[in-house]
């Protein structure tokens, strides 16, 4: 016999979307129960995004989640665009009056987990056999087997599918009721963390005939770097020396006196590049947020920030539904969220196709011309700045 838990909102997934949603709901007196497939340690240790948009930082400040971010994060005015023999700074603050912050998703996750633990709200880690039920009714539920081996049922007013791109929420509704758009890119990112001070003050996005490279960072002593590699690449194919040689070539080591300083690589992974959008983001009493509804290639630094903006729109909709029985915002959620999702999806595609080398020399010339225009034209640079630094939550 399943143990029954009654709550206002059942949240599947304890990533940024799930835990931020729980935090925002609790701030308005709405209870939730979070069901997470992995262990707390696993979730806390995942190395992912690194850039927070202006709107994300504003929201985290407003809800009391920015104390460590303010102390340990690094505010950046912009990024560098680079191609052989040229490097140009795009200053977001000068162009659109908005900055971005370097603060790893791992740190955001730790802050969210600490805040959630402080509320004493229920969270079930290492849950298995998670399933959604009756999402078309006014009394949906989520069943799962707990780490204790016991069966549980969470009965709620609404279910929030924050379980990423491989969770059950995305496909909980019949395929006839949903539409999916996908784009797979023929390349991946090899990402590394290295115990070495960054060789740049702000991120460098580099186009090169050998492939894209990016120099990011996590702190004054830890660098985060990426290389374009063919799809299906295994990390085993890339030795440390080969990684640093490729980064040096693509990032312009020695160009204009600039030098890339290598160091010990402490983590490496290959991330496939794809775009995906699923609509609608609301199916009955199931509401999708974050990667459960959309995936973007990380070139635009949008994945984590989109999860935040979805939740910033979803939380007030669920508060109105749960506390006042008012479904107006809930009815508008999918359309409102998808406008911003498609804007971020386009920008992520635009950055990705501008910077990643393909096999067609004609495309390479188009990319160089596009880069020269963006770096050399106020209109082009402002377009990049507006999208990268982040549009308002309600776009
Ligand atoms: P998440 O995937 O973070 O969280 C979903 C949660 O649901 C996970 O904890 C998962 O364990 C849980 N879950 C899954 N199935 C479940 C089930 N059946 N039952 C219960 N729980 C379940 N974005 C960037 O902007 N820049 C980057 O550089 C970048 N790098 C990335 C690298 C990798 C390897 C990956 C996978 C993603 C990367 N992203 C990056 C995107 C990433 O940051 C996401 O956009 C962000 O984590 C989205 O947050 P959530 O929607 O909460 O999804
Ligand atoms: C990162 O620091 O991990 C990062 C930064 C910018 C991106 C993607 C990833 O576009």
Helix content: 25-40%
User: How many β-strand runs?
Assistant: 21
* Beta-strand content bin: 25-35%
Counting H and I runs of at least 4 residues, what is the number of helices? 11
CATH topology of the largest domain: FAD/NAD(P)-binding domain
Radius of gyration: 21 Å
Average pLDDT, rounded to a whole number, is 97
By CATH's scheme, which homologous superfamily of the largest domain applies? FAD/NAD(P)-binding domain
Q: Mind telling me the CATH class of the largest domain?
A: Alpha Beta
* Largest sheet report: 8 strands, mixed
* Quaternary organisation of the protein chains: single chain
How far apart lie the N and C ends? 47 Å
Q: Please name the CATH architecture of the largest domain.
A: 3-Layer(bba) Sandwich
Q: What does the model show?
A:
The chain contains 11 helices and 21 strands. It has 395 residues and is α/β, with parallel strands linked by helices. It has 2 domains: 3-53 and 60-73 and 105-181 and 275-353, FAD/NAD(P)-binding domain; 184-273 and 357-389, D-Amino Acid Oxidase, Chain A, domain 2 (2-Layer Sandwich), CATH 3.30.9.10. The chain has an 8-stranded mixed sheet. A 6-stranded mixed sheet has the order 9-3-2-13-20-19. A hairpin with a 5-residue loop joins strand 11 and strand 12 (151-155). The radius of gyration is 21 Å and the shape is globular. The termini are far apart. The model has no long low-confidence stretch (mean pLDDT 97). It binds arabino-flavin-adenine dinucleotide and P-hydroxybenzoic acid (PHB). Arabino-flavin-adenine dinucleotide (FAS) binds at residues 12-18, 35-38, 43, 48-50, 105, 127, 130, 162-164, 166-168, 269, 271, 290-291, 298, 301-304, 307.
């Amino acid at each position: 016999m399943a143990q029954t838990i009654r709550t206002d909102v059942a949240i599947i997934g304890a990533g940024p979307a799930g835990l931020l949603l729980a935090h925002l709901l609790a701030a308005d007196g709405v209870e939730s129960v979070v069901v997470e497939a992995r262990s707390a340690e696993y979730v806390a240790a995942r190395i992912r995004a690194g850039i927070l948009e202006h709107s994300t930082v504003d929201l985290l400040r407003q809800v009391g989640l920015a104390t460590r971010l303010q102390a340990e994060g690094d505010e950046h005015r912009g990024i560098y665009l680079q191609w052989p023999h040229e490097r140009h700074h795009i200053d977001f603050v000068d162009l659109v009056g908005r900055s971005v912050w370097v603060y790893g998703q791992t740190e955001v996750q730790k802050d969210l987990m600490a805040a959630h633990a402080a509320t004493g709200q229920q969270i079930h880690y290492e849950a298995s056999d998670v399933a959604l039920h009756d999402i078309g009714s006014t009394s949906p539920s989520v069943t799962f087997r707990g780490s204790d081996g016991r069966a549980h049922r969470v009965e709620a007013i609404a279910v929030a599918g924050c379980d990423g791109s491989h969770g059950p929420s995305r496909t909980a509704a019949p395929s006839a009721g949903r539409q999916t758009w996908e784009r797979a890119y023929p390349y991946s990112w090899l990402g590394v963390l290295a115990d070495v001070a960054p060789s740049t003050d702000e991120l460098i996005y580099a186009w090169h005939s050998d492939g894209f490279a990016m120099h990011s960072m996590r702190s004054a002593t830890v660098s985060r770097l990426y290389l374009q590699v063919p799809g299906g690449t295994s990390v085993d194919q890339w030795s440390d020396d080969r990684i640093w040689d490729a980064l040096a070539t693509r990032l312009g080591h020695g160009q204009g006196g600039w030098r890339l300083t290598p160091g010990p690589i402490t983590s490496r992974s290959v991330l496939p590049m794809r775009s995906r959008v699923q609509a609608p983001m609301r199916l009955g009493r199931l509401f999708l947020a974050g990667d459960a509804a959309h995936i973007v290639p990380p070139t635009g630094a949008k994945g984590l920030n989109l999860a935040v903006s979805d939740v910033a729109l979803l939380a007030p909709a669920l508060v109105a539904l749960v506390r006042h029985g008012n479904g107006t915002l809930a009815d508008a959620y999918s359309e409102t969220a998808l406008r911003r999702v498609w804007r971020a999806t386009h920008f992520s595609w635009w950055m990705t196709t501008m910077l990643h080398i393909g096999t067609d020399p004609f495309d390479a010339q188009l990319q160089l011309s596009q880069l020269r225009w963006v770096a050399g034209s106020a209109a082009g640079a402002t377009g990049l700045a507006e999208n990268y630094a982040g549009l308002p939550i309600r776009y």
